UniProtKB/TrEMBL annotation, chains A, B:
Residues 388-614 form the Lacto-N-biose phosphorylase central domain. It holds the Pfam family Lact_bio_phlase. Its EC number is 2.4.1.211. The lineage of its organism: unclassified sequences, metagenomes, ecological metagenomes. GO terms for molecular function: 1,3-beta-galactosyl-N-acetylhexosamine phosphorylase activity; 1,4-alpha-oligoglucan phosphorylase activity. This is Lacto-N-biose phosphorylase.
Length: 674, 674
């Protein structure tokens, strides 16, 4: 790690620590003043840990501070507030009674977040490490000198791994660029882009810039600026490593901000490999999608620490690490069948394993399976059906397979990604903007749009652009497929809530009347999509959109659920899956989702049906919902996995109509020549 | 009925039939034209029943037509469309490829809707009745003459009931003024209000103006205009009835538009009574709230027709009318205990009862109980605890106790109203505007705000007014209580989703990240509000808001539910009820609701707790959740009801600490002197 652990330099250069815009706690004007107007004092660091943040009260920092009436959303003019250095506070004059006031300000980070995490969770007792900001040329020089010295001291090392680059995730979590700011970098941005960013660009009134929030134009510009900076900063470091005949790997995890290794110019660095820590299949697909490096490694949870990164006990008496690993591997393995993963790894204190011999044994089994799967990939990619899926989001390829870090269990988008990560279809990621500007690539035959209204996944304001609606309408009208989950294409203010309701054949009431919609007349049992679901459906979803109405005579509810009993006259039926035909194309709507065998199967069927490829669905498919398979034509082998903890028996439908019967031990991987 | 059944006059005066603005079906520009622009033809009446609507293509009608690009929401200038009389269509030129186009136009109603309903559901075979529009002086004169003739023919009648007034509910359902329009009335409006209304004021792009939609300024003006018209039109009719020594009643149901009998100047008519048809308690409270008339009658379902108004079979072999009436009466009776209802009634074909003697017997029982309850009210109102509730909505007192007609089972607001209709608290209804302008009346100690974001119940755009937020913040800060259900004070675009999150102590993520919120640290079992709920809560709600986060350190989750299992590390706990203290006041948040005994009790407790009146909650309270009581201090009597179909045993807590033990037969009403 290059930006922490150099406390001697950091102490001598406190002005070169990393910085962040923070949104203060909001203070309610208590109505004590004259005529409702009064002075309100906002203590800037109130509620923030003082061992992490220190106010940057320099004049160039204060140029960026902003104070808001959060009740009205209006920024206060400068003459309405002043900084009180003694109190570390901002004082607002003429505050309106019962309004909420908040300030955005700049703070130094005096304790690097991962180091602090290890102090708290893993009882580290070392001196807190201060993060240096490579925005300063002096820091970059220091980093180079430190790396050179380290390389000199470690001539035996053949692979150098950047455990971290420079900036950690901001307060918005995964992918938030909030920790990349400084007056120096912001001034360089202004010179290059011709306009000035504000604190609010980064704080958004305290919501910050999580991955699930669609990026503003300003924030997107800043990301591009930071990526350029990352490339300039990193190239000499990689070159130094290569010059000494070593390989350079990096961990895509804690301090990856600015790198965006899935797209852009990252490949120009010539980095040799990526390591991605994973719980789930979709995370393994992130590693698999990092095509900018030749070697892709996944690092398993649980780490060899007493507690998991999530706080769950693992290598301690209450822990069940072997069971945990079984769970993770069953999910990750599905993804490994679809995309080549070159290496697997673990990390932490190996000494902790002494008390868990069954864990060590299972790691050996996982390693065997992973090697077997990698070998299958070596003779070429696995068979994928004639379905090419484009998943839409605000990020497109840049954040392919990403959601908000580890699994967001309440998120329909994340649950869908997890199911998708092991399905035999082609998958790529496109941004709303590129679809609006250029339409869909010719090979794509199904588009997926999923998530809650207003998010980067569903699209939010992107749907106000008629070009996006036009492109997707045309795509389906001319024979394409659309699969929407949750609140696809949702945007307030129109005559429809779903801007693609005319394609989906279903909409949520734009202003919810919450009537007693009974869909009896539109139910269609035994549809291809729901063929493996219990009669009617009754699928288990983590989230489900109510108040749906069918808006096309061609729409059919193919799976539904009863949500209540009514002594009067209503059926309380709620659609779960709606299939529709639109011109030459098709659409499928899921009112919610959850990653489980029945839903994964329904999603697979929906993708094939939407693409008009039902006939191809049976090829290389397991009968049993708990079994999945991947056929490797190059290797002439078929891999079949049992995702469940029970022994299963399944048939695999082969190309040409044959069947292969298999008995599978719990969680087994079986490989057959075919 | 004065506006229908005069077909001879109607046939001779087709230009004086009632009219309505309709939003045409949307037509998708199919992309066949040159460079993406083409001509699109919108057949105006496509999809509408031709036996109900006839195009009004007169020049003064066409002045009001509008054509929209619904994809962008933009109105097309006149030169972009023309009317094709032969096709009954509007042709749009230069339509953009894949955009949706729709037209608003004016149509005559040639078949009155209730008459048509009876033809369809009850097999009436009479000539379809055409509805006349009293906007025309000739129609008003004709109505007067018809009424005079009828009164002359029926000297024996002592009570004249207006089964209908003039205009039925518009296409938006209950309370929609869409059927009151005509070029003549719109011109009179323009002269009086100084501006011109458009078709879109009434169609809203096909969403029309349901009660659950917050009214626009223009629509509210039109409602006031129509109420004035209603008063002018109705006064001479009522006077005629009174002049002959008869009483005038009216049915609050089918054609009540314009009357708004709960507020305004309706009382000036001197009408003698109201009849309201009811399934539920909240509807009985509408009748009870009609203080503009001295006599209030409720008319029970099921009507003596083979099928219920909802289509449910009743007086026919598949029907179970006695069971239905038991269900309705159990709910309605709770409301009758809280407010005086003077009369009960039924309607329909009495001959149908012959085959249902048990129904007739049960009607006798209902009548006995209703008379008993009315007698209790005669010596004064029942005891209500020291809790005075103001329910907020866009409508306030004008639509007190109303939702969207009969029960909307999926609506948290409607379910809450039903529970509230039988609780021993004072209830009034206030509009967001009057609260923003004048604050809360001094006697109110709890405010209720409930419903889905964007509705007239939750408030929608009303929450952008800082004055509303100020007033309610002040109210709670100074000791008041706030109870929010569903999406209270919700409005997009701020740093909070709930604009009163600082008071409620809880918010939904403004941009849903849908993380794995586990509320373990904030759960508080055994709270006063959840004292009767199963440990932890696990209440049954028809709707429940996910992605909640506690935003105040004083907030406590007092009821919660487990929504799933997670093999990894998450608890899948979702808050159901959150209690918070804010300055000197309190707030309670319900993430959903459903009218049932456990939730009704929790709502009652929440109202008392929010008002700081826990100590008073036990007075005149039944232990058993299925039993409720009302104490009538004037009569010195206590009425206890068993709402369930099982025998129950309950204690009633009396003032001063005493207890009365009772055994109650299924659905029993017991009255005791105390």
């Amino acid at each position: 790690c290059l930006i922490r652990g150099d406390n001697a330099f950091a102490r001598a250069n406190r002005d070169k620590l990393q910085q962040i815009f923070l949104a203060s706690r909001e203070v309610l004007a208590g109505g004590e003043g004259d005529g409702g107007a009064e002075r309100v004092s906002i203590e800037l660091l109130a509620g923030f840990p003082r061992d992490v943040y220190a106010l940057n009260a320099s004049p160039e920092s204060r140029e960026y501070w902003q104070v808001f009436d959060r009740t009205t959303g209006e920024e206060l003019p400068r003459e309405r507030w002043r900084f009180l250095p003694d109190k570390g506070a901002v004082e607002v004059s003429g505050a309106r009674r019962w309004h909420r006031y908040g300030a955005d300000f700049l703070a130094f980070e005096i304790w690097e977040s991962i180091n602090r995490y290890n102090h708290r969770v893993n009882n580290w007792k070392t001196e807190p490490e201060m993060p240096l900001d490579p925005a300063h040329p002096e820091v970059r020089e220091r980093m180079k000198a430190n790396l050179a010295a380290w390389l000199d001291r470690n001539p035996h090392v053949s692979v150098v791994r950047f455990t971290t680059f420079y900036y950690g995730n901001g307060r918005g979590g995964w992918g938030d660029y909030g920790r990349t700011v400084s007056p120096r970098a912001l001034e360089l941005f202004r010179q290059r882009y011709g306009y000035r960013l504000t604190a609010e660009t980064f704080t958004n009134g305290g919501l910050y810039n999580p991955t699930h929030r669609p990026p503003s134009k300003e924030y997107a510009d800043w990301m591009a600026f930071q990526h350029d900076f990352f490339m300039e900063t990193t190239r000499p470091l990689v070159d130094m490593i290569h010059a000494r005949g070593k390989k350079a790997f990096f961990l895509l995890g804690d301090q990856w901000i600015g790198s965006e290794p899935l797209e852009g110019r990252f490949a120009e660095l010539g980095m040799d490999g990526v390591v991605k820590s994973v719980f789930n299949g979709f995370e393994a697909r992130i590693a698999g999608a990092t095509e900018s490096v030749p070697v892709r490694e996944i690092r398993f949870h649980p780490y060899f620490f007493p507690k998991e990164v999530t706080g769950k006990p693992t290598f301690c008496p209450e822990g069940t690490p072997t069971e945990d690993l079984r769970t993770y591997w069953a999910d990750i393995r599905r993804a490994c069948l679809r995309v080549r993963i070159d290496r697997i790894g673990f990390g932490g204190y190996v000494s902790l394993l002494e008390k868990f011999p069954d864990f060590v044994e299972y790691v050996a089994e996982v390693s065997r399976q992973a090697r077997t799967i990698r070998a299958l990939h070596e003779a070429g990619a696995p068979y994928a059906g004639p379905v090419n899926v484009a998943v839409l989001s605000s990020w497109g390829r840049t954040r392919a397979w990403m959601c908000s870090g580890h699994m967001q269990h309440a998120s329909v988008y994340n649950q869908m990604l997890e199911s998708l990560s092991g399905l035999p279809v082609g998958v790529e990621f496109l941004s709303f903007r590129e679809v609006a500007e250029r339409g869909l690539p010719a090979h794509v035959n199904v588009v997926v749009n999923a998530g809650r209204s207003g998010t980067a996944w569903s699209g939010g304001e992107a749907w106000r652009d008629p070009a996006l609606v036009e492109r997707l309408t045309e795509f389906v009208a001319r024979g394409g497929g659309l699969v929407g989950l949750g609140e696809p294409s949702a945007c307030e203010g129109g005559d429809r809530f779903f801007r693609l309701a005319h394609v989906l054949g279903v909409d949520r009431e734009p202003v919810p009347g919450e009537g007693n919609a009974d869909y009896g007349g539109w139910l269609e049992a035994g549809h291809f999509i729901a063929a493996d679901a219990p009669a009617g459906g009754g699928l288990e979803f983590v989230s489900s959109l109510p108040n749906l109405e069918l808006v096309s005579p061609d729409a059919r509810v193919v799976a539904w659920v009863k949500t209540g009993e009514c002594a009067y006259f209503h059926k309380y039926l709620q659609p779960q899956i709606v299939a529709n035909r639109f011109r030459s194309g098709r659409s499928v709507y899921f009112a919610g989702f959850k990653y489980n065998p029945a839903n994964t199967r329904a999603l697979g069927r929906a993708l094939f049906w939407a693409a008009g490829q039902e006939a191809a669905f049976d090829e290389w498919r397991c009968d049993d919902l708990h079994a999945e398979c991947a056929y490797f034509p190059g290797a002439g082998r078929l891999a079949v996995v049992n995702n469940s903890r029970e022994a299963r028996r399944t048939a695999v439908h082969l190309t040409g109509g044959g069947r292969l019967e298999l008995e599978l031990e719990p969680l087994a991987l079986a490989v057959r020549e075919v």
